[in-house]
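Task: fold both queries, return tokens.
Query 1:
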Amino acid sequence: MKIKNWDKLTITLLCISGVIILFSFISPYIFTQFTSSIDFTDTGQIGDTFGGIINPFIALSGIILTFLAFYMQIKANQIQVEQFNQTIKNEKDLRLYNDRYNSYHHISLLLTDLEYIINDINEKNIKIKEFIELESQDNLVVNTLFRTPSTHYSKILNIDRLEIYKGFSFFIEYDKEEQLKTYNTLYNLLNFIPEFFKSIYDNYEKYSSNFINTKYIIRNDLNILLDDASQIINLHYNQSKLSPKSELDYLEKPEVQICNGLIKRYYEIIDESYNNNLNIIQETDFNKLSELLKLFIIDALHIRKNIANYDRSIEKLIEKASFIRKNIYDAKQQKNIFVNSLKDEYNKFIEPDKGTLANLKSTKEKIALSLQQFDINKL
């Protein structure tokens, strides 16, 4: 309550003092008019008369004015205290307004970043889903998991968390426990999501590197197998030159036929990866290569079973072809293990009710709805 300089008591005391002082000037006449004579010589000295009559009134007025002076000093002190308290209150209100204003904009910035993050997550999820679909196919094609930049994740974590917490206290329309729960949920999600995608991309990089290395090893083993098959063909060709028969008779030998068939079909499969301009249009089909090796092994085993004096060199080819087919199978298993693991993590992340993305969207909507109830001009 504002303290007034001129309250009723002050005005009353001043009026009383003024009346008493005025009354003191006419009091000698009033108190002597009923005497037998107006002649003051009969009632004493004029000065004594005036002094004796006026002094009590002057003294009373002085007492009242002295009291009034002390009272005014008290009032002045009260006014100073009130002004000091009002200044403190104004500063406190200003700080509170500034805190609410800053917190409002911090929460608004938070919502903007959350919207960007949710959109980025949706884009990441599309790319992961496409990768899973491609990787689930029964082949050894190297698929790329494309990623998007994650700068907003670090930006949002760099926002002053104290200001965000203040914003929750000011604008989130829930009890204290619910505010704290929402705040902790938000930052747990914001800390988890970047780590989640980092883990996915790190695992992908590791898997991709191992997968490419496995394919490289398989290609090398295939080249070695073809070299060994060529050596068998050359060996029989050199032997045929020493024979009185036609040099082309060696082409009729079963061992040479299956080796020639292996080499021919291998390069036919390789050629399918190129167009007429010798530009690569697709990766080599390892399923066809595996099927080629399977047929080669069957033919080689047939030779070993039915021909007494077969070329024992094909034993080595059978062993190598079987080993290559096993590596192709293992590469597919490696691929299936990775894609199934990725699929499980991805499905948990996007689960409609309890998934991480659903929780983030729910938290963001909760904050947005609470903030919409406030007008920045009425903070």
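Query 1 returned. Query 2:
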Amino acid sequence: MNFISYLFEKVTPGSSHVESKWLPGPVGEMLRSAGIATTTTVPFSASGKLVTTTTHVGLDLNTGALVTSSIEDEFTAIFVCLDAALRNAGVQRGVGDAHKITAYLINAADEPILQRIFRERYPGHCPAWGTAIVPAIVVPNMRAEVQAEAMLLES
């Protein structure tokens, strides 16, 4: 059976094989109330699952408040949220195990700052990375939203 056949056999719309999770605390509750999962997990083989996060903005995990004190603080908060989301879904090293990052920025000049903060937090980690420059972020006063994907291998 090839990969695509496996997916269509195992995962169908409304399938119980798709698992949604929410972070504990205010960020998870905010997303849950909006009908948005922090992560979804989809099986792709007998021993592996794909974990995808929602896009995250810079939120304080403890309070749910927007982090707007500086661009560095905002971008750091994004990675803190992504890391917590992936770990909550079972990805042991969080963003350190992500194979793909997708960033949405409102200013192309901010990408080097986002990349620097990523490299400082996850030295030597080189996931696939895509960045789109967008006219606005849904959450006012935020400069970026970032999404991550990782594989969860089970033994």
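Both queries returned. Flag for query 2: Helices lie at 3-10, 26-33, 71-88, 111-121.
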